[in-house]
Design brief:
The chain is mainly alpha-helical and 231 residues long. The chain contains nine helices and three strands; from the N terminus they run αβααββαααααα. The chain folds into two domains: 68 residues, Arc Repressor Mutant, subunit A (Orthogonal Bundle); 146 residues, Four Helix Bundle (Hemerythrin (Met), subunit A), CATH 1.20.120.530. The protein has a three-stranded antiparallel beta sheet. Strand 2 and strand 3 form a beta hairpin.
Length: 231
């Protein structure tokens, strides 16, 4: 039996903890105990420590001297700042993608939208599996929209902001059902992009992202913080 390379095990540990944070299994404010994670995941101390340090550098965790790591808390103020920054970066990426995108770009957008539109809306479901499937398809669609952008730095920043925003959206999805025509919003964005109407596409994407943030604020997301646990 071939042993799994250490690097692969470390990467698997990182991806699992990251997914547990995004899916809200590890809720905001929760203290993550390294020993417990090692036992639960069957991972080495080194792999867990490296994964936690990496997640802290990406903003998913906070590291405190003598107290270890905890999942970064959420707040209305942070969400508002995140949303404003995300909209600015998203518009830059989308404008360049619309300017440079060719037939393959258009085809990818249409295909991603079709798949997303066929899945149960994450705002109307509560099952973890359905939410995960929708979230993955949603990410694919939004990534397809900007895939023709040639700025690697813009795309890296955008991906980081998307993941941070996704944690807020998933918190909302598991907390309540929301009456919202997400398919209609996505369709309008797609049609504007394919029509090469950059101004309209950027206006619609900004409204789409802001709408999500506004719903989270209305749900008083601050009250959903988990109390940090003791060491």
């Amino acid at each position: 039996m071939t042993a799994v390379p250490v690097k692969s095990l470390t990467e698997q540990t990182y991806l699992q903890i990251r997914d547990d944070i995004l899916s809200c299994r590890h809720r905001p404010g929760t203290r993550l105990r390294i020993k417990m994670l090692c036992e639960e995941m069957g991972a080495s101390l080194g792999a867990v420590r490296e994964a936690l340090s990496r997640l802290a550098a990406e903003g998913f965790l906070e590291s405190t001297a003598q107290k270890g790591f905890r999942v970064s808390p959420v707040s209305v103020e942070d969400l508002e700042d995140l949303t404003k920054t995300r909209i600015a970066i998203e518009e830059l990426c989308l404008r360049e993608a619309i300017r440079l995108g060719e037939l393959e770009w258009e085809t990818d957008i249409v295909g991603a939208f079709h798949r997303l539109s066929r899945l149960p809306d994450a705002f109307a479901i509560s099952g973890a599996t359905d939410v995960q499937a929708w979230s993955s398809a949603n990410e694919t669609f939004h990534s397809a929209l900007v895939s023709a952008c040639r700025s690697n730095w813009l795309l890296r920043i955008r991906a980081m902001l998307f993941d941070q925003a996704d944690r807020y959206r998933r918190l909302m999805a598991i907390s309540t059902k929301v009456d919202r025509d997400v398919v209609g919003e996505h369709r309008a964005i797609m049609e504007a992009a394919l029509a090469r109407n950059a101004d309209l596409a950027c206006t619609l994407i900004a409204e789409h992202l802001q709408h999500t943030a506004d719903i989270v604020v209305e749900l008083s997301l601050q009250n959903m913080d988990a109390e940090p646990t003791g060491d």
